[in-house]
Amino acid sequence: MKVKELALITDYLKRIIKDELKEVKILLHDIKGLGEHMAEELERLQQEVAETKTVIDSAIVLLGQLADLIRQNATSTAALNALADDLDAKQAQLAAAITANTPETA
Q: pTM for this one?
């Protein structure tokens, strides 16, 4: 092969490599964007899980307190009725919160 032919082949290969590198850069940019989006979504999901855990923990405490209050007021009808009314109100609040925060399914 002549030097001129080798130079042409080298230039051709350089252009191909340059074009391929451009494509790789574009793909890397897209991947970086997806990674950032996924990180944002993960953070949002972690926050929602933390909020849900807080609500669950609060419900657990409430139920534990309720059991103790029933035991403490077993001899008082008025106190038990007040406790039952409070329980009804809390159940309604919990049901409303669950309904309000449950996504609709398609």
A: 0.49
